[in-house]
Structure formats: C-alpha cells, structure tokens
Amino acid sequence: MAMASAASRTLGKPLLVLVFLATLLLVLVSAVECYDGRHAVTHPAMARRSRLGMGTRHVHHRRTATPHRYVLAEKSNATGSGAKNRSSPATSNATSPTQAPARPAVPSKHHRSHKHRVRNWIIGFVVGSLAGVISGLVLSVLFRLTLNCIRGRYRSRSGVTIFTPKLIRRAEHLAFLEKEDGLASLAVIGRGGCGEVYKAQLPVEREGVEPRFIAIKKIKKQNSDTPNNLSDEESRQLDKWSRQIQSEIRTVGHIRHRNLLPLAAHVPRPDCHYLVYEYMKNGSLHHALKADGSGSGVAGLSWPARLRVAVGVAAGLEYLHVSHVPQIIHRDLKPANILLDDDLEPRIADFGLAKAMPDAQTHVTSSHVAGTLGYIAPEYHQTFKFTAKCDVYSFGVILAVLATGKEPSDPFFTQTDEVVGLVKWLRRVMLAGKHAEAIDPAIAGAQNEESIVLVLRIAVFCTADEPKERPSAKEVRCMLSQIKIHQDWN
C-alpha cells in the first residue's frame, strides 16, 4: 500500500501533463482536418473551371486551325505578292473568329503540392515534439520509480523503511529489532536527550566478507498506551522526541553527501522508534579532541587532521544551505554531533532539530531556544528566529574549539574574575595580537602557526555579533580549502 501511494504521488503531476498534451494534440489534429476539408471542397470547383477552360481552348484550336497545305500555299504566295496579301488590322479583326473569354487563375499543381508539403511538415513537427515530450515524461517517471526502489524508500511489509540499501540490503537483517528483547544483548555506546545509542553487527552474508556494524538510536514515543500520570515535563519530553524523530526522517532520510551521516533505516515499534545509522568507530569530534589514547577512538588529533575536519564540516554545511532544495538549517552544530569515519572524515549527525526552510522564507521561528549553550547565536536568544547565519555562528565556535582545544564549557572561562565566554575571549586575544595564547599546545609548532592563525581569524569572522557581517557557508568552505591547500603544499 505504501508503495502504491508513493507511486501515485510520483505519477500525479506527470499524468496531468500527459492529459493536457494529449488534449492539445487532438485539437491540433482536428484543426488540420478542418483545413484539409475546406481544401477538398474548393478543389473540385477549381478542377471543373480548369476543365472548362481546357475544353474552350481545344474548340478554339479546332475552329481556327488552318490545314497544313493551306499554310504552305500562303507562305509561297507571300513570297511573290509581298504586301498585297497583307490584310489591314481592321479586316483582320473583322474576319478573325471570336476569342475565348478570360479564364480565372487556377492554382498550379506545383503550388498545391507546396501547400501539402508545408501542411505535412507542420503536422510532423507538432506530432514529433509532443511525442518527444510525452516519452521524456514517461521515462523520467519510470526512472524515478526505479531509483526509489533501488534506494529502498518504500516500506516493507514489516514496516521497516530502508534508506541506504548499500548498508542494509534486506529488511530481514533488522528483524531482531522487532523482538521485545532485541536490544538486551547490545552494547550502549552513547546516551543523549532522546535516548540511548546501541552498537550492533549485521549478519554476514558470505564468508570472507568483513562484518558491518550499525548504530541504533532508540527514541521513545507517546501513544494511546502511554500512562496518563506523566508529569508535564515528561509529556513535553515525549513530544520533543516525537518531533525530533519526524525531523530526522524528513531531512536526513533523503539527503546524500559524503560529510553528512545518512539515515540507513527506520524501524517503528509500538512504544518507540529505532533509527539505524552506519557505525562510526572513531566516535565524535568531542571525544577525539579529549582522547588521550587510553580508551576507544583516536589518540588526539593533529592539526592537519583538524583542518581536514573543518573543511569537511564546511562542505557539509554548504550542501545543506546552498545545494539542497529546500534549504536545511541544522540548529545544533557542535563537536558532539560531528562523527569521524574510519578515515577521520567528518560526518554531520543528529538532525533532530533540523528544519527545512522553503525559498520564500528567510528564517525559522521557534517557541523556545533550541540548541547547546555556547554554540547558539546571540540573535537567536533575542528573537527566537533561526537563520542560516546561526549555523555559521555555531561553525565558527567549532573552528575556535579545533584551534584552541577549549570548548565553551571549559573550566578555563570560569576561573577568571570576569565571566567571559570562548567567543569574547578569542576576540580579545586576537585583537591584542597574542596568538600563541589561543593556540592549543597539542598542535603548537612553527610549521602550523600560520594556518592556525588564519583559522582563528575565520572563527572570529564567523562569530560576529551582526549576522550580516558573517560569511556564508560557501565562502567559509572556500577560505578553509585555500588554507588546507597551502598547508599541504608546505
């Protein structure tokens, strides 16, 4: 049923276009037939007039024709008598037979054939154009249906929706999630506001293939079976989780970019939802920056690796803001929501607060501030209006974290007499020219200092108080790419 409804939605508009084009074709054909009928009515009359004129011409020829022997006699007499046998114009006019009356102009066969050629050319051009448009629409619809089937955007009978068939090839691979104790034996790899995150291994289809792992996010939902004795805070939390699950499916389920973590599958349950993602063994950027080699993840990040992360996040943000239609605003960019794959390539994750913004809108208005303290743009606190420049502000804070090694919640900013955050502290240091104080000691070095200072300046640029003074995601990505090229060259 879901496949049929999706197919009907896909075929709705193209069918209307096909009906319109078919109607237009019928009108054109009927108009051509009317033209051909009028031409057929006038053709017999013209033919009759042509035959009458030909008959008169033949009669006149028979009446006025002179036998050949008399012509020869006249020619012989004319040589001897000269001007004697010449008749005067008056006598000639009097003795000549009556000439045939003037005939109306009759279209020649060439003219009629030219009209037929023009008419046939017009009909062929119109019919060929309409046939090409109709066939193109049909092929595009069939291609889209095939692509959707390949991507697995139609639900299976069990209710499982697969968005990334390259990772999860069959719905039976997630059958264990339909059991009551499906997650009992799985390891918990994270906890967030929406619930726990588990790690699971997919079944191995054949020997010799490396096992594949997935991350499963469990999100509770509110339904008719939910107890009525919940507090207001618990009810609001369940509503928030419900909105976030819808946002995840609506946005990240249908986007594809190397720096975005795609939603692999959605498994609905009576009491919760399971969101399935590809497992990132290097964890989040937050843990990678704090890692010391004693646990899972990477043992710290070098400056070239951090710069690569910055360029990748900027590319993903550019895709959301510029390339994707409609524009998507993440609203919760922070190191904890940036995951690292096997090659330390960043993936923007957790689209629970993301909003799709149509072209006609310039901002998203919310009833309360959503996001993480320290990464929220100042205008969002005041107006509750979130724009793409708010994401740029959050990304500027991430750049500051990459270069300084300090997060907004770092105890360093609470030990001073004056309460000051990461952004204001970085501005003061950069204006005073004390760049060495801002650079993380773990990445300090003469070979990295130039590019680190440039990234810090971009961070100050992105965290300007006025949104108009901040660059766009595309401009930030271009600047960081140039810095990375220069760093790699040296």
From TrEMBL:
Biased composition (Basic residues): 51-66
MF (Gene Ontology): ATP binding; protein kinase activity
Gene expressing this chain: LOC101779339
Ranges annotated as biased composition (Low complexity): 87-102
Subcellular location: Membrane
Keywords for this protein: Glycoprotein, Leucine-rich repeat, Membrane, Receptor, Repeat, Signal, Transmembrane, Transmembrane helix
Pfam families per UniProt: Pkinase
Membrane topology classification: Single-pass membrane protein
Protein name (Swiss-Prot/TrEMBL): Protein kinase domain-containing protein
Source organism per UniProt: Setaria italica (Foxtail millet)
